[in-house]
Write a structure and sequence with these properties.
5-stranded mixed β-sheet; 10 strands; Nucleotidyltransferase, domain 5; 13 helices; binds zinc ion; binds 5'-O-[(R)-(carboxyoxy)(hydroxy)phosphoryl]adenosine
Length: 345
């Protein structure tokens, strides 16, 4: 199964055989966006166009196969940036026609879940999946990762900024480069986690009544901005490491608290964390600790499989085949707002 991912700024082409990863080629346009402090959709689309063919060739070389050896093509149909998705979907259709093989248009979020099979074997179903990245923050009850019969059920999501977006915006406030997550992670290691008691969004008793499994990070981002401004006005230096550590603590506290609460309330014994923010060292440690206290297991793919890549799309495509799902029609769309419940388009 060859999988193509182009929903954001990574051109990913992965090749898998069942649960075995054969190749995972990724070309990122992140450096071209850095000076804008965020991903510029049109720049991303053009970068995908340039990277697509070389990345496909690189993946085939690594896997030691020719395109004609591929049994089927999988591609991210959505959600994501419309223009970026279109490049991947068009490439996948061309390949499917060229090699005369079926095509599976799949959901990016479910692919973040399915990828864990490449590292830790068959998915425990049901599992509670927490997806945290620059574009999404959601809690999902997964009983069937291919989405059959309501197999992917959203329990909650962010009502404003995504977790990774909060990391990126706060990094910018602190003068750290884009994307900010890894820089905050690093700075926080030298900082004091309780230096500032930043707000934990949607955790008050009143908020929990309506938003028990939802997230909100924009209030936290504003609180950090206010704190930094006040410190700058006072003429004292901003303790970057301490602010980074305190901010990171607030994000990880809310994410892990809600994930464990959701698993317990659903009677689920396995939590799976995916998306770029799953690479965060504090999130990994806190999730393990809090889940273990409730007898819950945590699975997190290695960081390279957490960020966007083609292997995750191939992994979900392979699952579609092994569960006998009908391939997509050749006119399958690129759908920027594809709902998480729609796993196969
Ligand atoms: O999954 P991903 O590669 O792309 C999206 O679909 O958004 O996630 C990228 C996001 C960025 O916001 C980045 O700052 C964040 O993941 N990220 C991290 C870390 N590594 C990447 N956030 C916190 N800690 C990290 N170590
Ligand atoms: Zn993603």
């Amino acid at each position: 199964m060859l999988g193509i991912e182009t929903s954001c700024d990574e051109t990913g082409v992965g090749i898998v055989r069942g649960h075995t990863l054969l190749a995972d080629a990724v070309a990122s346009s992140v450096d071209e966006h850095a000076r804008f402090g965020g991903v510029v959709p049109e720049v991303a689309s053009r970068a995908h166009l340039e990277a697509m063919v070389p990345t496909i060739e690189r993946a085939c070389d690594t896997a030691g196969i020719r395109l004609s050896d591929v049994d089927a093509i999988a591609v991210t149909s959505g959600p994501g940036l419309a223009g970026a998705l279109m490049v991947g979907v068009a490439a996948a259709k061309a390949l499917a026609i060229g090699v005369g093989k079926p095509i599976y248009g799949v959901n990016h979020l479910a692919a973040h879940v399915a990828v864990d099979q490449l590292e830790h074997g068959p998915l425990p179903e049901p599992c509670l999946a927490m997806l945290v990245s620059g574009g999404h923050s959601s809690l999902l009850r997964v009983t069937d990762v291919t989405g059959q019969d309501g197999g992917v059920d959203p329990l909650g999501a962010t009502i404003d900024d995504a977790a990774g977006e909060a990391f990126d915006k706060v990094a910018r406030l602190l003068g750290l480069p884009f994307p900010g997550g890894p820089h905050i992670d690093r700075a926080a290691r030298e900082g004091d986690r309780v230096y500032v008691d930043f707000p934990r969004g949607l955790t008050s008793r009143r908020d929990l009544e309506r938003h028990r499994f939802d997230f909100s990070f924009s209030g936290l981002k504003t609180a950090v901005a206010r704190w930094v401004e006040a410190r700058e006005r006072s003429g004292e230096p901003v303790p970057v490491n301490d602010v980074a550590a305190s901010f990171q603590e607030a994000v990880c506290d809310v994410l892990t608290r809600k994930a464990v609460d959701a698993a317990v309330s659903e009677g689920i014994e396995d939590i799976l964390i995916g998306g770029g923010v799953a690479a965060n060292s504090r999130l990994r440690a806190m999730a393990e600790e809090r889940a273990a206290a409730k007898g819950i297991r945590v699975r997190i793919p290695r960081p390279g499989l957490c960020t966007d890549n083609g292997a995750m799309v191939a992994a979900l495509g392979a699952e579609m085949v092994s569960r006998g799902r009908t391939p997509s029609a050749l006119d399958l769309p690129a759908d920027s707002s594809l709902p998480v419940t729609e796993v196969l388009v």
